[in-house]
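sorry to bug you again but im stuck and you know this stuff better than me. what follows is a protein written twice so to speak, once as letters and once as structure tokens for the fold. mainly i need to know what kind of three dimensional shape the backbone takes. anything you notice is useful, everything is just below:
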Amino acid sequence: MAGVRLARSNRPSPKPESRPKMMNATYAWPDGKRCVAAFSIDFDGETPYLWRSRHTQPNTLGELEQRAFGPRQGIYRILEMLSRLDIRSSFFIPGVIAEKYPAAVEAIAKEGHEIGLHGYLHERVDELSKEQVEESIIRGKQALEKVIGPRTMGFRSPSWEMTADTFELLQRHGIPYDSSMMGYDHPYWIEGLPEVPVQWLLDDAIFYRYTGGGAGNPPLNPNTVIDTWQQEFEGIKRYGGLFLLTVHCWISGRGSRIIALERLLSQLKNDPDVWWATCGEVAEYHAKQYAGQFRETLGGRTP
């Protein structure tokens, strides 16, 4: 309104030195790279469905067959794509998958990819006792080593949930890192273990997962998903973080999706500002370079 002046506050503007300083959480990567990119596959196939229905005897086959596409076809398409792009990736595999599809697990190992633990039957650790969690770790590791031989393996919790008992057990059994939490967008320490953080925005399931029955939204167009991931990569690159993409071969192994995925990975592979690494390599780098930094305890309490 004409002639009206806004009242001016008598409070003095804060002097620059009195303003709160923002925490500087810049993370430095090897060779002056701006950020790191890692590609991971949760190769769980039918196991999440088998875990959910373990107390019942379902007589439907739709979701089981949909998930079986992953170990039958999807996994090999992903392996072929990674070979063309010359990208080493991290596969987290439940023990039951190693028992049921040993040839697929052998193919992953033969290509030189990292293999990590993902439970035995894709058990949610928050639904288990401490003893049951330990059994799933031991059985999962034994099943994988029966196929690929003894080796040190990292851990990713099924459904990306964790408990204090699980962190304790991982250390007890010499597991070198976890990749299930989301407390930073770069590696950090939690309960004495290097954490290689994930995030839901970079998981294919929230965009594509659809198992029929009219429940939920229809899958998104791959171009929309790739555009979302591209935007997140640009943000992570700006802030010097970890771009850790996670897919499932029964979901992203489908034709249009894997074509779009290869387009994105090819673009990132050619970015000179990106350090490409496996989850294990990221954890090892963090353990060596940041032994005393970015340490957290459960619940976000700083030690």
